[in-house]
Amino acid sequence: MLRTIRFVRQGVHTPRLGFVDGDNVYDITSLVDSWSDPMPLWNALAALCVPLEQGFESLRRGLVESYSQIQRDGRLLTPVAAPEVWAAGVTYERSREARNAETKVKDSVYDRVYGAERPELFFKATERRLVCPGESLRLRSDSRWMVPEPELGVVLSKSGDLVGFTVGNDLSSRDIEGENPLYLPQAKVFAGSCSIGPAVLWNTHDVDPASWSISLTIHRDGETAFFGEVPFSQLRRSIDELVSYLMRDNEILDGTVLLTGTGIVPPDDFTLSPGDVVEISVPQIGVLSNPIELSVP
To answer: Which residues neighbour 193 within 8 Å (Cβ) at sequence distance 6 or greater?
Structure first.
């Protein structure tokens, strides 16, 4: 398992690129040109026909702080400088059930898109709008029903190659989308609505996300307010299918992230509150943790 993070050290604002091996972090910043987007390293290895895992073996040098120390004393950045983040919707049965429960539209578009040939895809965020791991996601000031959506994210090259995997939080307003599906952009795209991280797990021959699972834990006042878990084997559409539709008549850039949908939705009487802490875990990648605060209108 080959993971990289982007981080800054305590008191220093220059971003660094780290190769994570257990709790050890190897600073590989000087070894990678244009490192803030890890595509150049991947492209170079591919052009040389060097297996990705073999290329990373040479990076075990320049040991810096431990991963836990960086989390404690430094600051994690988004693991890839994603120029754009896109997302897929209604790709799990649980998501279809939740959308049907919240919508006021009786002839449900969610049933139809779940079984349709074409998936639901929508724009979520730009690099500037992304929230770093450990930093606050923000609730919409005009929503009364908000939930996190834990998702597997795939990191893509501009040609659509699947470079790696990360964890995403697609913070969403259920009441705004439920009022009218045409309000989807307002329910999904607002300040502080998306976080990815903490790492990129590079796509090597031994990586099989279909055998993984994702979990969501929401902490409130020192207790667990909600916990849910789902295997990625329940994802109705393949990752290749989602990427294929994203690429149709749509030019993307190196480092684009596509979130693949959620299969975990808290019960209908649950909404996030300021002070909550949301943790999304994919053990092979890491734990994406974000506190919750209220936006100021």
So the answer is: 124, 125, 129, 137, 138, 140, 170, 171, 172
CATH class of this structure's domain 84-294: alpha beta
CA angle (181 as vertex; 112, 133 as ends), nearest 5: 105
269: left (phi over 0), alpha (psi -120 to 50) or beta: alpha
Which among 166, 4, 180, 142 has a CA at the least distance from the CA of 87? Answer: 166
The mean predicted confidence, pLDDT, of the chain is: 87
pLDDT per position as a tens digit, 55-114: 777 767 666 778 888 888 779 999 998 999 999 988 786 555 655 555 555 556 766 777
Sequence-distant contacts of 225-228: CB under 8 A, at least 24 apart? 225/270, 225/276, 226/266, 226/267, 226/270, 228/264, 228/265, 228/266
- Which three-class secondary structure state does DSSP give residue 277? strand
The pair phi, psi for residue 241, each rounded to 5°, is -65, -45
Q: 5 pairs with which residues across the strands?
A: 18
Q: What's the pLDDT tens digit per position in 236-260?
A: 899 999 999 999 999 999 899 999 9
Q: Where are the domains of the chain?
A: 3-76, 84-294
CA distance 26 to 61: 6
pLDDT in tens, 134-193: 999 999 999 999 999 999 999 999 999 999 999 999 999 999 988 888 899 999 999 999
**CA nearest to 194, candidates 241, 113, 145, 140:** 140
